[in-house]
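> Could you send the SAMTR protein prediction when you get a chance?

Sure thing. Input:
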Amino acid sequence: VSFCLVGDFDKIWREHCEDEETLCEYAVAMKNLADNHWAKTCEGEGRIEWCCSVCREYFQNGGKRKALEKDEKKALLASKTTPALNVPHTPKIEDPLPNFGLTNHEAMTEEFLHSLGKIRLLDVGSCFNPFLKFEEFLTVGIDIVPAVESVYKCDFLNLQIQQPLQLAQDAIDAFLKQLKNPIDSLPGELFHVVVFSLLLSYFPSPYQRWICCKKAHELLVLNGLLLVITPDSSHQNRRAMMMKSWKIAIESLGFKRFKYSKFSHMHLMAFRKTSLQTTSDLVSRNYPGMLYIPQDFNSIEDEEYSNTACYVRSDTEDEQLAYGFMELPDAPYDSDSGESQSSSIPFYELEDPILLLS
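Output:
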């Protein structure tokens, strides 16, 4: 309520991080939920498995090479259709792809080098370090209150980003294996993958979500991946405009969406870092405000109304209601192709996002 009244999200977040008792209870509950519920009920729709699958497709099975080739073709086509000028063009920071230029040979060489070492992965809001069991990753899990010892304590929102390390790959790997707990700062351009699994909706403010995405861009190497997973149990197109809005906001930082999927209870997106410079044009558009969630629009009156006494269903009524929901159609869709996995109906993204500045 105090956030709604004064909008002091820094103060709210600081007080939240200081409430260690509640945070510890939350961490234990999340681990139990993952171990005892998600592992059993999310067969075929595991968010961790999806992240691993996207990383393998991108880094090991030619996904990155194909994306770079597409960038190169687009740039070549643009150069042919743009009239020649006497003044040479200097890419601005705002240009979406100022660093597309890896040749096919260079891209394949870089991909081969990646295959020799592990993929450096930062799992933000890790809780119980689910990526640690996968051999292809050198994983760093961070959380404000870790549920297991292998996760570092870190407030990502206030993490300090330092200058990139000028070291060989094996030296960078050694650096990551010797991190001190808690983590207050990290060098930029350190990771191949940054994971935001059920993270962004945890923050009370769109601006905080924007800051997280900006930090992720700074921490990723060029052509690294940002994986964003956010909860949503509604049908396919219910949040289409919100997801389009998120896509525009995140891409404005210097990303390009590589993959999109919709599971029964979540949206899953993979973004590729396409520019070394982290752009932050907040003049032409309110990009931070575009990272909204439905809860952002809840009013104080709604909160007060929700606290009033309400009818409580019996266990039998709950079972009947749950059985009724089992009869609903379920047609998840995958990737940017726009095709449903179990339906011929295309998924259309709306062109105009919701802008909070109206």
